[in-house]
Design goal:
The complex is a heterodimer of chains A (390) and B (112). Chain A has 390 residues and is mainly beta. Helices cover 6% and strands 43% of the residues of chain A. Chain A contains 2 helices and 28 strands. The relative contact order of chain A is 0.11. The model of chain A is unreliable at 5-19 (pLDDT under 50). Chain B has 112 residues and is an alpha+beta fold. Chain B has a domain at 32-107. In chain B, 29% of the residues lie in helices and 34% in strands. Chain B has 2 helices and 9 strands, in the order αβββαββββββ. In chain B, the strands form 3 sheets. Chain B has a 5-stranded antiparallel β-sheet with strand order 2-8-4-5-6. Chain B has a two-stranded antiparallel sheet with strand order 1-9. In chain B, strand 4 (65-72) and strand 5 (75-80) form a beta hairpin. Classes of the chains: A mainly beta (390), B alpha+beta (112). At the A-B interface, helix 1 and strand 4 of A face helix 1, strand 4, strand 5, strand 6 and strand 8 of B.
């Protein structure tokens, strides 16, 4: 009996096995407004009831099922849940890496031989042009001058337009040095991000003017920098463009306002005073130093109520301290004398970065003669130099 | 649940089955002769032809045919009568089953 049923089953199977069941959906995809052909892009069709992961796909154009430019053709009965009359199916063009896609279109499956999906336009990405990055000083162009111990506003402007006339969304920009890259993390020396650029959508026609500003710190690296600005359209297709500029070297140094030696007995050497020197620029510096009493070049370190201190009697050590009381001979041997004309001394103070505050101590003493009385005042001029020091 | 069949019933079942199968084959062979009637909607047809021809030829002769398709393994090949013909312009062979979707009741015209 079992053999009889088996025979009947096999017989029926071979009678009906090759009966086809197909319901075709065809659709047209027009070439994008920026001139990219729809052919070769992939269309996905799905039933939202079962999710997009259950889908059928086709390649638009001659290499796909339709064999015809700008058309696709899928059999919706080949879905895991075959389509039926009344089902609503969706389709869209996938981004194959060239930043072109489409929005969703849908139709209700009919009992006809095939159904025609609504035509779609291959969507273009945002077009970004006329990128210019600079500070407020436009001459010379493509040079940025930083501000000592502060920030400089750098603006990256661009013109953005969605060829389909849609809005410019998620406008952002990154400003990064040649030693960094687009994907690097933000770092005041090398990389800045602005994720909320200002979009002026009434700039001209469909075009928007996009301003992205960065507050660039004084210690940003002196090298070539790139601004890459980007945005997306309402189908998340992004466009971007770049401009380059150069951040000029900034030589700058800062010290505390006074070196107060306090009361110093005549014919003696003062206590050591520490003066912290900070590099407020973006390159490593040596120190240029000179002193004067009342006027530059007067040969004095200080001018006192009675008498004065010659410039050579104020001395410094730029590398190491000598604490406690010291003799005149130790004073002479352990410290370098201040001069009336600027002298560049080796100091090797690197610029600030995330882990280095760019401050270094210097050590100062003064020697007074017996005839001095009253208050003494003078000036020491600290300068930053890129020259090699002695 | 267990079914018990007597020999008599077995023979009766086999007879009914064979009559049914022969009837299906008879109807099918009748449909393969010239002037195959097509009903509106899906039609499963097996053509009795001497020379093969392309699906586009069939569609040109029968504008009411919207789709011609067949299945090979798990893959369905189709030719859609839209903007001059979309899809695979496959060869229609003798004694092969095809699905023809017609927009109205008609008689299928085959090339001479």
């Amino acid at each position: 009996m079992k053999k009889l049923f088996l025979f009947a089953f096999v017989f029926l199977f071979f009678c009906f096995a090759e009966v086809s069941a197909a319901h075709y959906l065809v659709g047209r995809v027009n070439n994008s407004l920026d001139g990219v052909l729809a052919d070769g892009h992939t269309v996905v069709v799905w039933n939202p009831t079962y999710g997009i992961s259950e889908n059928v796909t086709d390649t638009i154009g001659p290499s796909g099922n339709s064999g015809t430019s700008n058309y696709y053709m899928v059999d919706c009965e080949s879905l895991s849940h075959p389509c039926a009359v009344g089902d609503t199916l969706y389709s869209k063009v996938l981004n194959n890496g060239d930043n072109h896609n489409s929005g969703n279109v849908s139709l209700d499956v009919t009992g006809a031989g095939y159904d025609i999906m609504p035509s779609v336009l291959l969507n273009s990405p945002i077009n970004v042009s006329s990128v210019l990055v600079d500070d407020s000083i436009l001459t010379p162009l493509n040079q940025i001058d930083l501000v000592t111990a502060s920030t400089r506003k750098v603006t990256c402007t661009s013109v953005m337009e969605d060829p389909e006339g849609g809005p410019v969304l998620n406008a952002s920009a990154k400003f990064f040095s040649s030693g960094s890259s687009y994907g690097s993390v933000d770092d005041n020396s090398t990389h800045y991000t602005n994720s909320s650029c200002f979009v002026n959508s009434s700039y001209a026609g469909n075009a928007s003017l996009v301003n992205c500003t960065f507050e660039v710190f004084y210690y940003a690296n002196s090298e070539n920098w790139t601004c890459l600005t980007s945005a997306q359209d309402n189908l998340s297709m992004g466009g971007n463009s770049t401009d380059e500029t150069f951040i000029n070297p900034l030589l700058s140094v800062g010290v505390q306002s006074k070196i107060d030696f306090g009361s110093v007995g005549t014919e003696s050497v003062s206590n050591e005073k520490i003066v912290n020197v900070t590099n407020y620029g973006n390159v490593a510096i040596n120190l240029s130093l000179y002193g004067y009493g009342q006027n530059p070049g007067d040969g004095l370190a200080m001018n006192c109520t009675t008498g004065n201190v010659t410039v050579g009697d104020e001395r410094y050590n730029l590398t190491s301290p000598n604490s406690g009381l010291i003799s005149v001979s130790q004073f002479d041997s352990n410290y370098q004398n201040l001069t009336g004309l600027y002298t560049v001394r080796k100091f090797n103070l690197n610029k600030k970065n995330n882990s280095f505050n760019a401050t270094k101590p210097t050590y100062w003493r003064i020697k007074l003669h017996p005839v001095l009385t009253g208050n003494c005042t003078g000036s020491v001029v600290f300068g930053a130099s890129s020259q090699g020091g002695i | 649940m267990k079914f018990v069949f007597s020999k008599k019933k077995n023979l009766l079942f086999l007879g009914i089955f064979l009559i049914l199968a022969i009837s299906i084959m008879l109807v099918s062979s009748l449909s393969n002769s010239n002037g195959i009637p097509l009903k509106e909607g899906k039609n499963e047809v097996v053509l009795n032809i001497t020379n093969s021809f392309n699906a586009s030829t069939l569609v040109k002769l029968n504008p009411e045919v919207e789709v011609v398709s067949y299945t090979e393994g798990n893959v369905t090949f189709g030719y859609v009568n839209f903007i001059g013909g979309l899809g695979d312009d496959f060869e229609i062979m003798n004694e092969m089953p095809y699905e023809i979707y017609s927009s109205k009741n008609s008689t299928l015209i085959l090339p001479e």
